[in-house]
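Per your request, structure below.
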């Protein structure tokens, strides 16, 4: 099964609206049935000084994006409020609605995320299916936790929206590749190109292949999901 993929490797722009319009532009350019992954908090960035405004705009952005995204699958994270608490929530949009949502469970204390976000429970980190494809999702720092990899064993594709810092660039590349090989799946890493970020957005295959281009604002490629089945038959881990 041939599946088009677009990874965004973009910066947060001067305003929330500009950042949203940037994402919409790339959605419109992508193939009609593409999987599109945007960096972590690609609409607002980590705008802790304006939490209420970031949450409010995220809701408006969701309304806009759910109208636009139909056959495509869009994955991104947003500031959201749940039961009066602010969370960093990944949403998966398809057929004009949210088909999966997942709150960031492992917060990055080096970046003081724990001072501004409430952590998820981890219960929503599980495989979900769209069009016969089994997906998993991790948010940035969660990529470091092998127990979360285990929860996603059996996924065909694991998506990782990120704002991963440049000093740990090599870590991102090693972990992304290892996840794909270990879980015998495709790993789609979409990382920010903000000034202090690592870029290194990449498509990692279960056979160890990689598509990576730090110079690009988007990385578009077609993956063959049959590679997952072949790899699991070739080296059976059960």
């Amino acid at each position: 099964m041939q599946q088009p993929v677009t990874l965004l490797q973009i910066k947060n722009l001067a305003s929330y609206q500009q950042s949203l319009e940037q994402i919409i532009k790339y959605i419109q350019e992508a193939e009609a049935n593409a999987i599109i992954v945007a960096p972590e908090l690609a609409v607002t960035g980590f705008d802790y000084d304006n939490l209420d405004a970031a949450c409010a705009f995220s809701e408006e952005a969701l309304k806009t994006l759910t109208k636009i995204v139909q056959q495509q699958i869009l994955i991104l994270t947003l500031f959201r409020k749940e039961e009066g608490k602010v969370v960093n929530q990944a949403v998966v949009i398809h057929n004009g609605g949210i088909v999966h949502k997942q709150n960031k469970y492992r917060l990055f204390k080096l970046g003081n995320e724990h001072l501004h976000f409430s952590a998820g429970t981890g219960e929503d980190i599980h495989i979900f299916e769209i069009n016969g494809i089994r997906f998993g999702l991790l948010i940035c720092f969660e990529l470091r936790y092998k127990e979360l990899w285990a929860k996603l064993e059996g996924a065909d594709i694991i998506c990782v929206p990120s704002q991963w810092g440049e000093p740990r660039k090599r870590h991102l590349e090693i972990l992304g590749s290892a996840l794909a090989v270990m879980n015998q799946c495709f790993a789609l890493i979409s990382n920010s190109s903000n000034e202090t970020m690592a870029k290194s957005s990449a498509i990692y295959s279960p056979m160890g292949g990689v598509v990576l281009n730090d110079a690009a604002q988007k990385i578009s490629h077609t993956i063959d999901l049959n590679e997952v089945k072949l790899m699991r038959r070739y080296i059976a881990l059960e």
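Residues 51-68 form the longest helix (18 residues).

Regards,
D.
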